[in-house]
UniProtKB/TrEMBL annotation:
Transmembrane residue ranges: 33-55, 67-84, 96-118
Gene Ontology MF annotations: fluoride channel activity; metal ion binding
Subcellular localization: Cell inner membrane; Cell membrane
Pfam families attached to this UniProt entry: CRCB
Gene field: fluC
Name the record gives this protein: Fluoride-specific ion channel FluC
One cellular-component annotation, GO: plasma membrane
Membrane topology summary: Multi-pass membrane protein
Residues that hold Na(+) according to the record: G75, T78
Purpose: Fluoride-specific ion channel. Important for reducing fluoride concentration in the cell, thus reducing its toxicity.
Any one of the GO BP annotations: cellular detoxification of fluoride
Sorted UniProt keywords: Cell inner membrane, Cell membrane, Ion channel, Ion transport, Membrane, Metal-binding, Sodium, Transmembrane, Transmembrane helix, Transport
Organism: Paludibacter propionicigenes (strain DSM 17365 / JCM 13257 / WB4)
Activity regulation summary: Na(+) is not transported, but it plays an essential structural role and its presence is essential for fluoride channel function.
Length: 123
């Protein structure tokens, strides 16, 4: 139960932060790219990479704090950060084919799922 509360609190903070950062879409445009989402994805990836790196080299971040920061805040902020961190782990383990397949499948099936969900909403 403690872990659920830790993740839930972090997730709430991350979701609120994502909402605030995504407001950039309303004020900053570049080639019609959703800059708020792009910013969230890149910042989330940077943050989860930093936390993972510090956690791998030191014991400064406790397991509960790591859960709060990585799964809670970063997960609430963007699941893209988890995706990129998992790919980094695969690369560090020399599983390059898995990186290509995971990335390719995620993008392809993600687009397909969004499209099918959109189509289903119009039935």
């Amino acid at each position: 139960m403690k872990q659920l509360l830790i993740v839930g609190l972090g997730g709430a903070i991350g979701s609120i932060a994502r909402f605030l950062v995504s407001k950039l879409n309303l004020h900053w445009h570049f080639l019609s790219i959703p800059m708020g989402t792009l910013t969230v994805n890149v910042l989330g990836s940077l943050l989860i990479g930093f936390i993972a790196g510090v956690s791998a080299r030191t014991e400064v971040i406790s397991p509960s704090m790591r859960l709060f920061l990585m799964v809670g805040i970063c997960g609430g902020f963007t699941t893209f950060s988890s995706f990129t961190n998992e790919n980094l782990t695969l690369m560090q383990n020399g599983q390059f084919l898995s990186v290509l397949l995971y990335t390719g499948f995620s993008i392809f099936f993600g687009f397909l799922a969004v499209y099918l969900g959109y189509v289903a909403s119009n039935l």
